[in-house]
Inverse folding.
């Protein structure tokens, strides 16, 4: 069984096609049971197939000396060439009892154990897709075979499962392995919706790849379709797969880890080939559902998802911490401001040093009231008094001619002075700065505008 556990063993099982010639006899002289297995004409072919699979997966084929107990010991497998002796033919099609030499149109026994007796064949849609591009700057080609609606859980909407399925095939990525990387496990969801973006549609791919050497890789890809300009970018978005390619971690492996990103594209010619390759009685319904989902995304633009309350659940239950706004006048006469969140909580025996937050060039990074968690909430909850500098760069201050050097030379010293007025001159401050704010605090310290003795970290 493949996975993240230490064991990397895989059980290979094939359907038998033996004659009903097996015998179990009791030797009266020795009181021993003698067993003669039935003749299996396909046994050599199955062994060769197992050996080929083992080589592709980079493993070693181990065969037991004893006959498996999961088969009929005396023969009588379900596969045969006629309905007089067996249930189905070697292709897995179930014989129709009323009409000899004919098969049941809606039942199949899959010899590769991908479906069960009684599964409807017409509920499965098969699609082939070829995508090309570059991952980590290196050429990549994926040959995918998708089996849509391979499973339909009880109580689920069949219209949704028809846009979900399993993925097989192989990948050519010479930069990692000169041989093909075979897909040993794969899933696809062509209409995935996230509650935070109910108007967008996603197509998610997740593939587990295996090489001849035994290495395992995980490829995760996403097509993002946004309802902009009435689908003007629809073709590009629906045919561009953004992927990440990583080595599957194995506890006993010492090989170099791979972590790459890239894009794969479906060309117009390959798109036409995929359309032609669609098989299954429900291919018309599949195409209709897919087109409906794309039309809903690009043309109708109606949200999806359970419940249309897009507010994070914590917002309705907890209020944002109250704050006090202080206006400050810098040494060059500019009015700026600083927002303060007081905290009465004392962790341990001593009160925590205040934290000063400095934003980047534009936008707010730390105070995010519409989010369930932000840095201001986290600091206040952990006993830190928090102050947010709203420098002359902030949108609420209509400043004109200034530079980032002015923030480091005038604005930061002004807020440090205000902190000393609120507490004491000897208190030290933790500074968290982002982007241009980080550059400004460096200018303040290295330019001597703020003493390093005032900074805790």
């Amino acid at each position: 069984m493949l996975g993240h556990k230490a064991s990397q063993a895989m059980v290979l099982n094939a359907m038998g096609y033996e004659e009903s010639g097996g015998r179990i006899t009791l030797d009266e002289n020795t009181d021993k049971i003698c067993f003669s297995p039935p003749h299996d004409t396909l046994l050599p072919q199955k062994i060769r197939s197992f050996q080929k699979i083992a080589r592709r997966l980079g493993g070693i084929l181990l065969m037991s000396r004893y006959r498996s107990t999961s088969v009929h010991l005396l023969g009588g497998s379900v596969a045969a060439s006629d309905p007089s002796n067996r249930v189905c033919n070697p292709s897995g099609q179930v014989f129709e009892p009323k009409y000899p030499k004919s098969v049941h149109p809606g039942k199949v026994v899959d010899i590769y154990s991908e479906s069960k007796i009684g599964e409807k064949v017409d509920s499965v849609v098969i699609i082939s897709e070829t995508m090309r591009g570059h991952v980590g700057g290196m050429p990549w080609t994926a040959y995918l075979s998708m089996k849509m609606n391979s499973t339909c859980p009880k109580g689920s909407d069949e219209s949704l499962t028809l846009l979900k399925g399993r993925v097989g095939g192989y990948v050519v990525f010479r930069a990692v392995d000169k041989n093909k990387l075979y897909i040993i496990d794969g899933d696809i969801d062509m209409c995935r919706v996230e509650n935070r973006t109910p108007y967008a549609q996603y197509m998610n791919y997740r593939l587990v790849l295996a090489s001849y050497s035994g290495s395992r890789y995980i490829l995760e890809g996403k097509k993002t379709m946004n309802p902009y300009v009435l689908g003007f970018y629809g073709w590009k978005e629906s045919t561009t797969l953004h992927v990440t390619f990583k080595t599957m971690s194995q506890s006993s492996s010492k090989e170099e880890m791979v972590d790459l990103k890239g894009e794969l594209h479906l060309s117009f010619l390959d798109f036409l080939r995929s359309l032609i390759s669609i098989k299954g009685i429900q291919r018309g319904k599949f195409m209709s559902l897919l087109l409906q989902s794309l039309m809903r995304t690009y043309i109708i633009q109606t949200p999806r998802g359970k419940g249309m309350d897009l507010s994070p659940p914590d917002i309705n239950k907890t209020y944002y911490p109250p704050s006090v706004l202080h206006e400050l006048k810098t040494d060059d006469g500019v009015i700026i401001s600083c927002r303060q969140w007081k905290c009465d909580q004392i962790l341990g025996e001593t009160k925590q040093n205040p934290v000063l937050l400095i934003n980047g060039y534009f936008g707010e990074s730390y105070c995010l009231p519409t989010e369930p968690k932000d840095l201001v909430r986290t600091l206040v909850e952990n006993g830190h008094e928090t102050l947010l500098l709203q420098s002359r760069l902030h949108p609420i201050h209509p400043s004109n001619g200034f530079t980032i050097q002015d923030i480091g030379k005038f604005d930061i010293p002004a807020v440090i002075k205000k902190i000393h007025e609120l507490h004491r001159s000897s208190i030290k401050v933790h500074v968290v700065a982002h982007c241009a704010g980080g550059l400004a605090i460096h200018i303040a310290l290295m330019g001597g505008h703020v003493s390093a003795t005032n900074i805790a970290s």
The chain is about 20% helix and 30% strand. The longest helix spans residues 404-422. Residues 337 and 390 are 5 Å apart (CA to CA). Residues 1-6, 106-122, 307-317 have pLDDT under 50 and may be disordered.
